[in-house]
């Protein structure tokens, strides 16, 4: 093509990076398109990575693939899920990688047992210092099994600024005596307990007495969808203590609880 007919650079429309980033934001849930955009221009890469790696299902394959590029990828990883894996050794690999990430705000453990972890992983989660323990604000536990309630509480105690704490079908074997100090719930804003042993968890989070004087008034969302008769006194104490600070309350009752709402909200005698 004759140079006189070739379009010059200034003839192409030029948008500010802010506008381009806003356009890329509309592709937040379309991975293939974001992957393509990420190799178009170096300036597009940060926004594409922000959406591509914001939520990660952490697997051994992911950990191995990104180990060498951890420094460039890890700042974009904000929410991590560790789900059921094929082999026992794989849990140690993903826990090792998890503790190297320093920007995580949300963590979900799903469909596995504490006993699948090796001694090093257990010790790392319960004793080792890592940024995740100081930065995490959301912890969701779903379909998990622990050897005892104390181990479960020891794990949660590691996270110092949790705002969102969820138990869904969390069980433990040994009904050990709970002599741990009450959970430091000063930052907690949402508490969800479903298909789990409600009473020891509520007692620990609230400070252990029926009046729930120890619970933080920052707690504005409480979800207890399957209360039993024995749970009502403690749950009612928490609701009375929170009072007007509650913004969302969800309660449900098992089939054998008659007039549960009246018992739950009855003034303490």
Summarize this entry quickly.
This protein is of the alpha/beta class. The chain has twelve helices and eight strands. Helices cover 35% and strands 20% of the residues.
Word description of this protein:
The structure is a single chain. With 269 residues, this protein is α/β, with parallel strands linked by helices. Helix content is 35%, strand content 20%. The protein has 12 helices and 8 strands. It has helices spanning 17-25, 31-38, 45-52, 60-66, 70-73, 88-98, 119-127, 132-135, 149-157, 198-206, 232-242, 260-265; strands at 55-57, 79-82, 106-113, 138-148, 164-174, 190-194, 221-227, 248-253. The chain has an 8-stranded parallel sheet with strand order 1-2-3-4-5-6-7-8. Strand 4 (138-148), helix 9 and strand 5 (164-174) form a beta-alpha-beta unit. The longest helix is centred in the middle third of the chain and has 11 residues, at 88-98.
